[in-house]
Amino acid sequence: MEKLIKTNLQDDGIMFIGFNRPPVNALSLDFIDELTNIFREIENNKKCRIVIINSLVNNFCAGADLKERKIMSLEGADNALDKLNECFNLIENCKIPTIAAINGYCLGGGAELSLCCDFRILEESSIIGFPEVGIGIIPGAGGTQRLSRLTNKSTAKYWIYSARKFTAEEALEDHVADFLANDGELLETAIELGEEILQNAPLSIEASKKAIDRGLECKDMKTALNIEREHYKVTLKSE
Questions:
Q1: 64 part of the active site
Q2: Is residue 169 annotated as a catalytic residue, yes or no?
Q3: Is 132 a catalytic residue?
Q4: What residues pair up with 15 in beta bridges, in sequence order?
Q5: Ranges 39-48, 77-86, 197-206: which has the least confidence
């Protein structure tokens, strides 16, 4: 049986994580377990310096495996959501930069997954959105929280309340996407971004990421600046 997710760590430190569950990389329990294990391994692999998540099929990820969810009990669905949140938290807290290279459809849980990454690059023809309220639920794997922090409260509400599917250009305008790539040039664009980051000191990148992410969780600037100073000191002790 072919792997649901294929990984490839290059000599330069770029780790490719390729989703390989056609047609839409639905997030089954097996898929989630596999992705969780990959990110646990990345935490202990000093050779990894950048992660690029991409799809090896025509769509990035259209969300939960609805056929699997349909036969779950309420308790089973709740446990599945716990697993999904554990996986997404690992991605968000990954010590090295993460890039989501998005093609085709990126919907629901797939869009929530992309929000966990540091950067989102959308192919021009890609579509992204949160259609959950259209089927009587809400984004339940961090979407309501991460989207509002990424954009702003009213934009996040519109994206979620409307259940619209947005174009790549609209996503860029609303600051959900960071970069656009021409069709057929998605991976090259992601690699260019990765290589730009790789030119800099790895410990400094890691410390910067922690300082930014932890600082944004603070309610006051004084605490945030103390966090920045803490991570600055870490870099001073390095070669």
A1: yes
A2: no
A3: yes
A4: 9, 51
A5: 77-86
